[in-house]
Amino acid sequence: MKNLSCIIVATLIFTSCKKELNQNFINLKYPKTNKIAVTDTIFGVEVIDNYRWLEDDRSKDTEAWVNSQNKVTFNYLSKIPFREVFKNRLTELWNYEKLGVPFNEGDYTYFYKNDGLQNQYVVFRKKDGIETLFLDPNTFSKDGTTSLGSLSFSEDGRTVAYSISEGGSDWRKIIIMDAESKVIRKDTLVDVKFSAISWYKNEGFYYSSYDKPIGSELSAKTDSHKLYYHKLGTLQSEDRVIFGDEVSEKHRYVSGSVTDDSRYLLVSASASTSGNKLFIKDLSLENSKLVSIIDDFSSDTYLAQNHKSKLYLVTNFNAPNKKVVTVDAKYPSLENWQDFIPETENVLNLSSGAGYFFANYMVDAVSKVFQYDYDGNLVREVNLPGIGTCAGFDGKQNAEELYFTFSNYITPTSSFNFNPNDGNYDLYWQPNISFDSSDYLSKQVFYYSKDGTKIPMIISHKKGVKLNGKNPTILYGYGGFNISLTPSFSIANSVWMEQGGVYAVPNLRGGGEYGKKWHNAGTKMEKQNVFDDFIAAAEYLIKKEYTSSSFLAIKGGSNGGLLVGATMTQRPDLVKVALPAVGVLDMLRYHTFTAGAGWSYDYGTANDNFEMFNYLKGYSPVHNVIKGVKYPATLVTTGDHDDRVVPSHSFKFAAELQDKQTGDHPVLIRIETNAGHGAGTPISKTIEQYSDVFAFTLFNMGFNQLINR
Predict the structure, then answer these.
(1) What are the tens digits of pLDDT across the range 227-268?
(2) Do residues 668 and 73 make contact, with C-beta atoms less than 8 angstroms apart?
(3) How far apart are CA 599 and CA 678, in angstroms?
(4) Lowest-pLDDT range of 253-267, 414-428, 558-572, 586-600
(5) Which residues, including other chains, have CB under 8 Å from residue 660's CB and lie 6 or more apart?
(6) Parallel/antiparallel/unpaired status of strands 204-210 and 198-200
(7) CB 531 within 8 A of CB 518
(8) Which helix (H) or strand (E) holds 659?
(9) Catalytic center residues
(10) Is residue 31 domain-resident?
(11) What is d(CA 260, CA 409) in angstroms, rounded to the nearest whole number?
């Protein structure tokens, strides 16, 4: 180390001095990927797919390809000098007790807890001041890859139903257990997917699933969702279909929820990820029928709460930023709706508990919370702990206190217990973490996209970072499905910033930060707006000298993986490193796998019409890799059990890049085995993934070591 003429600061820092080691010392030889051309003719246009064979997740050839790619990738990563330094620091910082907010069921108070590095959170409960372990998902499998999903108690709290995911799959089992004795009942349910668990009194519960697909359960199409009722003590084969058995119309996403008083069943049915029909059934009346509340997919509507027969609905019908309406359950159709909390210029999220409603508004992606009573009177604005993201304020109607959480990009998540009567709150739990927020800055800026649209972005970094264009920077984005990126703390990102890195998150069109209009502005034939917003964010960071193209990485997962793939193929000169994770990358075939057809509201499909096909083909990352172009250093990441965005998207994109890349920037794919789309991933695997991503990023920006002093 002494031969390096670098300036060393009293912390872990990046160095990019002249060195004996550099990116070229690792000899890369990609595995051979066979080209077996399959030609599709779409609206008279021939489209050649050389890697269709990689879509077969059950074939030996695909398995061999995965193994050979991983061998090359992990050999490369193992030679990066500071990979283990990142892993050690992530492990050290992750190792603190984490505590969820409590909730009451029956005679017990339950809460989630993680001692620090446990792969999965453990469920504890307390009674008469005595704390005992209730459910430990870390015992579900030896490697920690079986995770706990939904956890739902019967009305009296004496029976619990919980779902588990094995290997990260979206397919779940629902296990039913006596909550007192913890004896598991015999009526376990299997092959359940995209489902809540909603109890009717103590008798049984509603859940949702698809018919088991023919072929691979990880990739075969699933597009007819159904709502079932399971009565305790009966076989799953005897479960009644409540909704979704109609031959005339398929619904890709169906859910059922019972009101707190067990009076009503609400059924939501969607054809895509946006827009739903809503039905209600009076469970107090024998043989009552489902009655339509709203009968088309033009808006999103759900029940927030009921008070006797009065329904409180949250909707964006004629209200792009959402509002709350009331209606009597006997006459619930649209013409009888009355405004309760009118639409404002900010997007509304609603929760309820202790006999109140809490309107959580996003104001430029930052939370503001207002408390209302059941008559619609404003009680107070809740004075939050700071500028950031607040969540919670939900609970049973008779609860005496509620809880909420608060965090931002440089403030670890803390929880507070809130008195709904006077609006005061106390700190309930604060993490004991080796991270000092006072050493960091997080500020919101606004920049203009290609068409002049004003876009917010939050930039976070350590104090003292010089704006000299040489700071390693990760630009993270999503931009889709009405999902909002609000400020939240991440242990991994704190390690990045701790080392002097900049972390920037723009709120792109396609998200939900400014309501339905903002979402729609990034869908279908407007999808290019999302990529333009992201590109403009990168250009802003470069212009303001936070970084430069030589020190900039772009990162995103799922729809964000598409964002990265489209950006790097449209502007390969813009960034040094590209990190597409579990991405939707083949836009001509995404709708043919699992529930992918349900994403058509955002994307459109290649068989809609020629214009839509041509538009998708114009930005589809798999179809826009060009021979002879120098693409950024790329680390594609996915899981072999991802049955939401099937891994063949990533396989084909990596194969195209490896075949056509010019220059010496590496193109690698890291395929996590026995892992899915991300939910329930063990902490140990998460730490390894971040270590590899950060190490790859810095190494390909020209840094060869981290100095610890």
Answers:
(1) 999 999 999 999 999 998 876 677 889 999 999 999 999 999
(2) yes
(3) 18
(4) 586-600
(5) 625, 626, 627, 628, 629
(6) antiparallel
(7) no
(8) helix 648-660
(9) 558, 677
(10) yes
(11) 35
Please report which helix (H) or strand (E) contains residue 690, including its range: helix 683-699
Which residue, 232, 258, 284, sits at the end of a domain? 258
- If asked whether residues 509 and 601 sit together in one domain, one would say yes
Residues 116, 74: one domain?
no
| Same domain assignment for residues 572 and 696 | yes
As beta bridge partners, residue 163 has 174
The answer to whether residue 232 is domain-embedded is yes
What is the Cα–Cα distance from 575 to 557, expressed in whole angstroms?
A: 17
The verdict on 103 and 74 lying in the same domain is: no
Report which residue type is found at 649. Answer: H
Token couple for 115: 């001692």
Give burial (CB, 10 Å; 0-12/13-18/19+) of 289. exposed
Give the C-alpha separation, 383 to 526, whole Å: 38
- 82 & 105 share domain: no
Q: Could you tell me the residue range of the domain that residue 234 belongs to? A: 99-258
Alpha-carbon gap, residue 349 to 307, rounded angstroms: 19
Beta partners for residue 267, in sequence order: 256, 279
pLDDT at res. 273: 85
Domain C-terminal end among 258, 292, 326 = 258
In whole angstroms, give the CA distance from residue 158 to residue 175: 14
- 330: in domain: no
Whether residue 678 is found in the same domain as residue 634: yes
Interaxial angle between packed helices 528-543 and 559-570, expressed in degrees from 0 to 180 and rounded to the nearest 10:
70
Residue type for position 302: Y
Query: What per-residue string of b and e applies to 641-651 under the rule 16 or more CB within 10 Å gives b?
Result: bbbbbbbbbbb
Q: Are strands 577-581 and 633-639 parallel, antiparallel or unpaired?
A: parallel
The answer to whether the CB of 319 falls within 8 A of the CB of 276 is no
Q: What is the CATH number of the domain that holds 439?
A: 3.40.50.1820
Contacts of 611 (CB under 8 A, 6+ apart): 525
Q: Letter for the amino acid at 506?
A: P
Q: Let me know whether 155 and 33 are in one domain.
A: no
Q: Give 183-239 pLDDT, tens digit per residue.
A: 999 999 999 998 999 999 999 999 999 887 766 656 556 778 999 999 999 999 999
Q: How many CA atoms lie within 13 Å of 51's alpha carbon, on the beta-carbon side?
A: 23
Structural domain total, the chain: 2
Q: Does 376 map to a domain?
A: no
Alpha-carbon distance of 692 to 635, in angstroms, equals 9
Same domain, 39 and 132: no
Who's near 337: CB < 8 A, 6+ residues apart?
A: 313, 315, 325, 326, 327
Predicted pLDDT of residue 675: 56
pLDDT tens for each residue of 570-582? 999 999 999 999 9
